[in-house]
Write the structure tokens for this entry.
Amino acid sequence: MADLAVREGAPRALSRRGQRPRPTGHAGTRPWLPYALLALPAAVYGTFIVAPLLSTVRVSFYEWNGLSPPRWVGLDNYRELLGDAGFWQALLHNGVFLAFYTVIPVALAFLLVVLLTQERAVRGLSVYRVGLFVPQVVPMVVVGVVWRWMYSPVNGVVNALLGLVGVEPQPWLGQASTALPAVGVVATWVQYGFAMVLFLAGVQRIDRDLFDAAAVDGAGPWARFRHVTLPGLRGEIVVALTVSMIAALRVFDLVFVMTRGGPANATDVVAFEIWQRAFQLRQVGDAAAVATVLVVLILALSRLVLRLQPSDA
Amino acid sequence: MVGTRVRTGARDLLRAPAPLRSVIALLLLALLVAGCLPASDDGAGEGAAEEDGATEAAADDATEEATDTGGEGETLVVWDQWARGVEGDVVDQLNAEFEEEHGVTIQRETKTLDDLNATIGLAMGQPDGPDVAQVNQGRSDMGALVEAGLLMDLTQVAEERGWTERFSENLLNRNMFSEDGSQFGTGNLYGVAPQAEIVGWYYNKDAFDELGLEVPTTFEELEALLADIAAAGETPITFGNLDAWPAIHTYGAVQHTLVDTDYLNDFVFGLGDADFAIPENVEAAETIQRWVEAGYFTDNFEGIGYDDSWAQFAAGEGVLMLTGSWISGELDAEQFGFFLTPGASPDEVVPQIGGQGVPLAIRADTEHPELAIEYVDWMVSERAAQLWAEAGLLPSGTPPEGTVQEGTLLAEVVDAWTTTLDNDAVGHYLDWATPTFYDELTAELQQLLSLSVEPQEFVDRLQADVEAARSGG
């Protein structure tokens, strides 16, 4: 009887010792209540998210410059997209961003969580939580502008610091070979805090008793990590992966502010292609096609990742 | 058990068919809504075309009654991109004087050029959009608006207001399109600009004195000058290409010395199918690469933004800067000078990149056509030219005698401009050639400057892009 309330927040990984959470409330007496409460959010969602999305899909079947009457072209925009090397290259760059947005921050967050939570509770937790989360709070545009200054070969902080260890000043954002990783580093800087905070919270929820039990059973640190920490954090991992993966595929403001897709398209990403087609080249139908493809891709990949989510026991 | 049943229902909501039905219902609803959203602009386009004729007639009537300049108490909505400090002040002043003289209010909205380009298309089609706005030259911006019938034809107005006398054909043609927007450089006039632009070489007079240098009169002398500066350990050309477009001016300035204005007009306006793959363009690319290899440009220029680089130059770093007249107001008038890119011989005035600044255009179905025309005329008047000149910026018109002081930076810029005009040597921004050329040219130039592509290949790839764009339409 210890735990009646359903826990909220990140998807529940491990239920406590076999006890099933039971919801309270009188929902059974008014079955229409959930739908009534959902009506307003559904309407807002429908108007501002679903309707524009469907409108975009519709526009993707036309050739339109945003001003003159559109012309029906069916699947032509999609066919052109398949053969457009620029688009595939942009998608490749998004793939690279996946490493910087998802893989590296999650791995780093894990590392730190493992180090900090050997068997004891984490000390100074609030400091970490706030400090590491700050990059998430700063608007992306501001992050981009400031890091652009920091990368400047003339008086930027990055080159100044690297100069202390004897590295020559480099035009990090101006060279095709270093531009993408340079922007990626900024993405990691932003995204790391998110995974970190998520995992710290998740680890806190894991029952101390489980660690003790494992130790008693003779499990070493690595085994404890594999069999207690990792499964315990499964829900958090899925959330971290999903959110950061979407961010990696959607990235626009960072690239726009720092490099405008350059130099020589080295940092071109799918979202930037959409902007370029819609606003620079005035090919709104093409832009809509790229946007639709991106949405489908993100939905498909998210679904895949969410399958890893642990089901309620 | 009530509790269990409800809990089962809640779990279903997280998984299977029942919520899927709701989602489908939602999507259908949204589809209905989306179906009602117009994706076409038929009504607006045709309506605007009809009104265009009507507004022209109204404009003619208005200008015949010379003294009646539109009602008192009217509000004119103006969008512009004069955001940089000095320019902004000039426009505020001009607006204030106009408001006082005509008893009207000007509602001014300023955006950066990028934002303006992105939003002007949508805005011009709205009934409460701007009456007057700066519209970027070129097919994708002004051309697209002309095609949609959203801009007022100013050909008649230009004759009546004397613009055709003040500005040569070669200047006005950049704002001309055929009525359907398909031909660039001929046809009707859709805009006129208060500012002129010319790309040339700013030089630091103090540095010149120190190093004992003189303004070069031939291209050979210019290259010798660059070598001398480099040998003395100074940075010859302050340059920053992180924003990608400055390279267009660097390359273009050199390229212009090798071609003539006929070729440039043909190429940029897409007339006569002029090719990009000509030996002169290859030679220009070779020269630029030679300069990069010789270290004439700022170190690590690939990573320096444009605003950072001219700020550096203004602070005294580097001896020369090859850029446009638009920053002349920000540089010290005594410390800096300006000269044109020289040709093969001292008397030759080769084409120079330049033209009019971003022009003002009038919305076709504006409710204040007479007032809008008055405003545009005011912005290119002698008084406006005076204020621009006093702020150190190059006006497209001629400022009154004595406004421009001898020996100052602006005097040299105005001199350069007048010389170019008189010799009919105003060139072009190469990126105007096709809607995709800006992206392609900037990308290829970044590769050229990083020495990762050969000049011939550079030219060939751009030629392929131009052909693709022209055939694709």
Q: What stands out?
A: The CA atoms of residues 95 and 404 of chain B lie 22 Å apart. Residues 42-64 of chain B form the longest helix (23 residues). The beta strands of chain B are 75-80, 105-110, 132-134, 176-177, 188-189, 196-204, 320-324, 336-339, 354-356, 360-362. The two ends of chain B are 70 Å apart (CA to CA).
